[in-house]
Amino acid sequence: MNFRPTHLRTLASHVAEIWDDDVVDVLSSYVAIGCLSPDFDPSWADNGEIGRAARLLSAWAASRPLPGCAVEVVEREGLTPVIIADVPATPGAGTRLVTLLYGHLDKQPPLGSWREGLDAFVAVREGDRLYGRGTADDGYSIFAAIGALEALAVTGTPHGRCVVLIESSEESGSPHLGPYLDEVKARIPEPGPGLVICLDSGCATYDRLWNTISLRGSLVVTLSVEVLSEGVHSGMAGGVVPSSFRLLRQLISRIEDETTGEILVPECRAEPPARYRAAAETMAAELGDAAVGEFPTVPSLVLSGQTAADRLLRATWMPSLAVIGIDGVPSVSDGGNVLRPFTTAKLSLRLPPPLDPDRAGEAVVRTLSTDPPQGARVKVDVTSAARGFDAPAQAEWLARATDEASETLFGRRAGAMSEGGTIPFLAELASRFEDAQFLITGVLGPESNAHGPNEMLDLVTARRLTAAVAHVLASAP
Ligand SMILES: [Zn+2]
After folding, report:
1. What pLDDT score was predicted for residue 94?
2. φ and ψ at 54, to 5 degrees?
3. Which of 170, 182, 196, 427 is least crowded, fewest Cβ atoms below 10 Å from its Cβ?
4. Domain housing 51
């Protein structure tokens, strides 16, 4: 298909109409619903808030002029519901690849106090910003997906079959998604979707279309070192009975270089491929230190990493360790002269995107539990292991379509970014749809404050992103 920028601009003007006439109102009604994710609302099934949001959004989707579109709320026993909107291929486009578009409707809690005039559950529009919990994460997603398809329909632009899946357990780590993905997979004949568009990611800036190409995996491990059956006077035992903290420190140094923070376990390490290095160099050259993000560091603190690109790779690809909890240690004000019986630490490890977290976990357990120092009683447990995400290299048509959309709608070429955190549903999608291409994008950019107070959707970006999705769908072979 020859690229016609004027046609893309026509799509964009229809998208703008849809957003202005309709979407902002419905999205504002959605903000008022307290559809917190199951982890934050154990009574979600009884209070029905998630169901209410699903009905509001699915009714909007069903009301749109999309020929042959079937919208349903699917609810399996004990699981939060999903919205599935199945839009058939346009006449003559039945052999084009099938696209799965993903978003979610469950929300984070308000978290902290919102600034004067704002409220988590009251939508407030200030210019091109729409404030309220769930606007950007991820209420906008169904409007972007359906709005893109509507713009294609009203302009008579051909496209393949599209299945929109909006789940409602994402903010809890997507524990309810698996069975629904199996159902979607069963509805799409082999070879399954050729393209997966995820509308729940970040954008480093608002001046281009961003594609997330990788996320790190994670491993949570508890490590316990026991030396006594009860505490004893440190003036008597100190120097003879080893401190459980010292032995714990010694053990942690087996997996992490205590000076540099380098992770030493081979099964937790992987070298970044050339394309990730190149993406990090490009992003660092453009954004400098802002590429990594801003942290509330004390003024004298020296960050790890030599250059911005180096820091970006350290934050998004390399493994790292944080001690996120400690038991067996009293608070400073309660501490007495006691040689304590045990110390237990909760360790959080971030893993390079392609690594198998179970294999990494086994290696960490082996390293920490073999040959305990001074014969102490050491216990090691992996309490969670999540796989990262390493997107397949982009097909030429997709790279071209995202660049065309980004240049025409945003004014700059599309960008590739990596994230240091973990989004469990991506590994779920990647494991089921191995042959699919991925476009992982979103509106979570500067000041969007997902999960924090003052969450905000940048409406200009939402409209551009919607038009970009339309162009990608129209360009899919
Ligand atoms: Zn989200």
Report:
1. 94
2. -60, -40
3. 182
4. 5-215+388-475
